[in-house]
Amino acid sequence: MSADFAELDYRQTPLGELTLRRRRIRALDGLEVFEVKLGDAFLMSSLFHAVEVALADLGLAAAAAPALDVVVGGLGLGYTAQAALRHPAVRSLIVVEALEAVVEWHERGLVPLGAELTGDPRCRFVRGDFFALAAASGSGFDPASPGRKFHAVLLDIDHSPRHLLHERHAAFYEPAGLRALAEHLHPQGVFALWSDDPPDAPFLAALRAVFARAEAHVVSFYNPLLERDSASTVYVAGKA
Q1: Shortest CA distance to 99 belongs to which of 1, 23, 170, 11?
Q2: 3: pLDDT confidence band, cut at 50, 70 and 90?
Q3: d(CA 222, CA 229)
Q4: How does DSSP classify residue 173?
Q5: What is the pLDDT of residues 61-85, one digit of tens each?
């Protein structure tokens, strides 16, 4: 196989064929890029992670507690988790990931942030379906402490509230699903969400039906492959 391209892992998953690959982009001075594909669709790339970082920064900036217990929904390549751990107020971080392969990539050091995340004592991976755990009032996100509440939940799984990886996720983005999620938060807790689409007025309305405040932040970043700026959205909602 060419030194410019390597398939590091391939798995059949309930969501489809999952592939981790590494390639060098000669047009970008040989930059090494890690990519994850689900079927024919690109899920994530190490080339673009500004919005994943913004998700953590914007979400945690809205959390008022001096010591924060945080949940990240979706491990991916680890950029949201890494950004959260850089906040000195974060005392614990649970990362919920449905795909066992993604957790293994980090534990085996196949992805760049694996050693950093697995080596941080504040960080713990939970293998599970984020959406099922969010809907479960009696147990919640921490299997070691059922019913535990958190100061912030940061979610980066679906492409947007309208473009889902699986149709069963749809109920989460309605007021009833968001209300169930809010039950896992402390009284001043924060929920933040990444979306690859522009701000969505109906989803903002759903957030405002549940949370005391909600806003959409457009986050722009330079796309070197297209040689122009691209943009995504980070929603931030607070209970108080």
Answers
A1: 11
A2: low
A3: 4
A4: G
A5: 999 899 999 999 999 999 999 999 9
- Among 51, 16, 44, 152, smallest CA distance to 95 is for 152
Structure tokens at 2: 């060419």
User: Which H or E run includes 97?
Assistant: strand 90-97
d(CA 181, CA 211): 11
**Which residue in 50, 51, 15, 57 sits closest to 36, CA to CA?**
15
The H-or-E segment that residue 204 falls in is: helix 201-210
CA–CA gap between residue 153 and residue 60 (Å, rounded): 9
| pLDDT band (50, 70, 90) for residue 149 | very high
- Percent of the chain exceeding pLDDT 70 equals 99
Per-residue tokens: 165: 């990886």
The structure tokens 């968001």 sit at: 178
Taking 50 as the threshold, does the pLDDT of residue 1 lie above it? no
Give me the pLDDT at residue 239, please: 96
Are 131 and 97 in contact, with CB atoms under 8 Å apart?
A: no
User: Average pLDDT, stretch 138-166?
Assistant: 95
3-state secondary structure (DSSP) of residue 27: helix
**Could you tell me the two tokens for 193?**
């969400």
The widest CA-to-CA distance across the chain, in whole angstroms, is: 54
d(CA 157, CA 55): 12
| Distance separating alpha carbons of residues 70 and 120, to the nearest angstrom | 14
